[in-house]
Every structure is written in structure tokens, then in C-alpha cells.
Amino acid sequence: MTPTAARRLLLVHAHPDDETLTTGGTMARYAAEPDTAVTLVTCTLGEQGEVIPPELALLDAENADQLGGYRIGELAGACTALGVTDHRMLGGVGRWRDSGMALAGHGVRAATPEVLHPRAFARTESFDAQVDALVEVLEEVRPQVVLTYGADGGYGHPDHVRAHEITVAAVERVPARLYFTAIARSGLDAGLAGLDAAQPFRVPAPDELPSVPDDEITVRIDVADQRERRIAAMRAHATQIALWQSGAAVAYAMSNLVAQPLLDVEEYVAAQRDTPLSDDLFTGVTA
User: Fold this and answer.
1) Helix 227-236 to helix 18-31 angle, to the nearest 10 degrees?
2) Which band of pLDDT confidence, cut at 50, 70 and 90, is reported for residue 226?
3) What span, in angstroms and rounded, lies between the C-alpha atoms of 79 and 75?
4) Domains in the chain, ordered, with CATH?
5) Which of 124, 181, 208, 255 is least surrounded, with the fewest CB atoms within 10 Å of its CB?
6) In angstroms, rounded to a whole number, what is the distance separating the alpha carbons of residues 26 and 233?
7) For the whole model, what pTM was predicted?
């Protein structure tokens, strides 16, 4: 297939909901721009996720083990809200399973579980096949820009780390401009300081939520105009995201119920060092 859009953005995410939490505004912004294509690659169905609504709790892996199938519908709803029409499951639906995570003993940090499912995404022996599957998508789409997580996966989740590793390897074979998701420390601190006192979640301890020094940020995308689309996408992921809204005030939390602010900027770090600060992922990109 020959790509038709002049600008092509591809995102690699580990589980349904990750696309909305870290890049939802970016996806919505570029999906709405002319002659721009957005492709989302999701690596697992998120089968091991913890379920927030009590009425859906029995979907989880320890009971009916139907959460992955349910989250396909949630992801479809989020993509619709964000205006994204090109979504791929890496290797096909259900090829690799959510690895789950263990708590790392500090804040929201995660680690690899001692025992992995035979189809777990983080298994060492699956790496080459995963890279090949992603290369196949890259060769078809030919994106100029690729987004995924940094080397630590943002907070240590083994599937986020693996998504980073296979994306770096795949981009070496099919070159593109590569960026990693991040949150600048000052922006996160300002957002947390501005949380409405009425929001119901636990305010995080200092440095509990992951962030990076401000001077590491390479691209800052203004996503204020995509706010309502992002909120709608969060609501679509009801098993994973608890959302509180009162007028213009918004806070959200995962199953740990730690409060996070909805920031109007999404930020990225370039894989290539010494990249100048920009407000557009496609700055300097030619078709």
C-alpha cells in the first residue's frame, strides 16, 4: 500500500488506554489536520488490568478473564472520540498478552512479575517476532514520525519497556523521527498544585508520579483545543480510568486512585540528542 497523506504519524502503545493517557491530545490534534494520517499500534489487549467499576470487576484475569475482549470495545470508543481511524493490534488481535506488573516499592513504579504467562508480551523469546511485526506496519505506513515510551516505559511497566525496545529496533530498520512520551517536572507540579480541593482522589506524594527535568523536553504540543475529545476518550476507558469533572475542573486516576491533573500540553523527548525545542512533531519534515 502506498501512503497517501503527506504527513504520517505512528504511535506504539502497550495497552488500550495508554494512547489516551499520554498521547490522546496529540492524536486528536494531528488526526484533525489536513493531509495528515495517524496510525495507532496497540501491543496487547490489557488482559491483566485492574478493573475500577465494581459491576465489571469479574471481567478480570482472576475471574472470567474477559477483560481483554471488553477493552477492545473501550479502545474503539476512545479512537472514535480522538478521531483516529487507523488502528492495528501488533501481530493480530490477541497475539501477545498483557504481562501484568509487580509493584516496585516506590510510589507508582512497576516491575516485571516473577511469573509470566506463556504469551506475555515481555517474554524474552518473543522480541524478534515483535520487531518483525512492527517493521511490517512501518513498511506499509512509512511514517515520518513515531511515538512511544522512553527506555523505562514511563513508570517501569514491563510492557511499556518492551514497547520502547521493539520500537527502537524497528525504527533502525525503517527509519523515522522517533520521540518518547514524557511529562516535564514543572508542568506536572503546576498541574498538581492546581487540583481542585473537591476532587475525590488521593493527592500524590512529592515525586510519586513520573516526570523528567524540563530541559529534557524536545517537543511541547498544545492540546488545549482537544480537551473535550480527550475527556470523551477517557470516559470510553471506563474499566481503567476514573474521571472526576466539575465544570472546567478535571482530575483522573487509575485503579490506585492517585490523582493526576489533565494538562493542556503533551510533551516528548527526541531520541536524537541536541534536537531543538519545537511545538510541532513535524517541524522540518518533508514528505
Assistant:
1) 140
2) very high
3) 6
4) 7-186+203-233+264-270 (3.40.50.10320)
5) 124
6) 13
7) 0.96
Side by side, which strands form the sheet with 249-253?
A: 242-246, 249-253, 260-261
Among candidates 268, 204, 241, which has minimal Cα distance to 81?
241
Distance CA 89, CA 69 (A): 13
Going through the chain in order, the beta strands assigned E by DSSP cover: 7-13, 36-42, 86-89, 102-103, 110-111, 145-148, 177-182, 219-222, 242-246, 249-253, 260-261, 265-270
Cell numbers for 222, please give them.
Answer: 498544545
What whole-number percentage of the chain has pLDDT above 70?
98
Calpha distance 149→165 (Å, rounded): 9
Contact 178, 167 (CB under 8 A): yes
Strand partners, 152: none
For range 8-20, the mean pLDDT? 98
CA distances in angstroms from 111 to 73, 101, 159, 160, 182, listed in the order given: 28, 6, 10, 11, 19
Residues 43 and 177: beta-carbon distance below 8 Å: no
Average pLDDT over residues 197-202: 97
